[in-house]
Write a sequence for this structure.
């Protein structure tokens, strides 16, 4: 690997998950040594969001994005949610030890109040990953779409209140995600945010770009063929996305790029993603890295 740039940014990873509890220092050092200058940890629950903020406090290279993933929408919308208070399947950490009432101070559910408190931290740069997911996972199934939409909309409203962009999760729900975003277009910032790990139809890509969203690509862009349930190869979507809208991410510990597929992913592999995308776009890697760095700072204005 002949990397010339040292200004890559991993805009979406999960060092706040249990896969990294034993070697944060080494993982972050490898990323910086490889040329990754900033790493953005993303929450999927209250607990993993809190842990993302704690890591951002500890490491200068780290920032945080906080939110409730659609997989957890049913948990926060029903009364009582001890799994989000005392533990989480995501991080393997216990960040909160006592049960807290579901409602605090006003008519909003406890979770959105607590998320707002977390999101006011100076190193929280967006609300995410939030959105809709209609893929049926073996361990999860499809969470009630009405609950997903309720939680999604509440977080769009919170982002508007805090003047933060969105980081969107979409899996097999692109048309619905676009519909919700268009309905609440007046609440979106400029630019409105980014689509994490983009995979959808060309029509959804067109809509997302027209609305001003950036498009994130991960290690799975290096995989040949179609992802399950998709109709357009990720490499084709990357070619269709203007370089001025592309941001790179790893989704570590998931979606490890070739040639390391099958092992734990980590932010240092964002260089591999960047080099692959630069090849698809037909530009030198240092030019690609400089442009995507500019894209990230345009998108996340709190990032330093």
């Amino acid at each position: 690997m002949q990397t010339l740039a040292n200004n890559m940014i991993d805009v979406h990873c999960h060092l706040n998950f249990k896969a990294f509890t034993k070697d944060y220092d080494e993982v972050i050092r490898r990323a910086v040594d490889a040329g990754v200058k900033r790493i953005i940890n993303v929450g999927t629950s209250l607990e993993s969001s809190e842990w993302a903020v704690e890591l951002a406090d500890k490491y200068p290279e780290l920032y945080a994005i906080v939110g409730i993933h659609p997989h957890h929408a049913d948990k926060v919308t029903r009364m009582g949610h001890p799994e989000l208070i005392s533990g989480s399947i995501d991080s393997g950490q216990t960040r909160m030890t006592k049960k807290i009432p579901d409602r605090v101070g006003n008519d909003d559910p406890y979770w959105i109040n607590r998320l707002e408190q977390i999101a006011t931290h100076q190193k929280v740069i967006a609300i995410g990953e939030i959105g809709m997911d209609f893929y049926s996972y073996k361990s999860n199934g499809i969470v009630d779409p009405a609950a997903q939409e309720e939680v999604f909309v509440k977080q769009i409203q919170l982002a508007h209140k805090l003047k933060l962009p969105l980081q969107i999760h979409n899996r097999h729900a692109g048309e619905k995600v676009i519909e919700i975003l268009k309905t609440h277009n007046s609440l979106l910032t400029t630019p409105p945010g980014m689509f994490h790990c983009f995979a959808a139809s060309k029509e959804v890509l067109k809509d997302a770009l027209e609305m001003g969203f950036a498009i994130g690509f991960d290690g799975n862009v290096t995989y040949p063929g179609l992802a399950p349930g998709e109709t357009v190869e990720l490499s084709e979507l990357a070619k269709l996305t203007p370089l001025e809208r592309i941001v790179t991410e790893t989704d570590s510990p998931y979606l490890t790029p070739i040639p390391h597929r099958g092992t734990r992913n980590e932010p240092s592999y964002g260089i591999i993603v960047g080099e692959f995308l630069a090849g698809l776009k037909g530009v030198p890697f240092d030019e690609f890295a400089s442009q995507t760095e500019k894209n990230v700072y345009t998108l996340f204005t709190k990032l330093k």
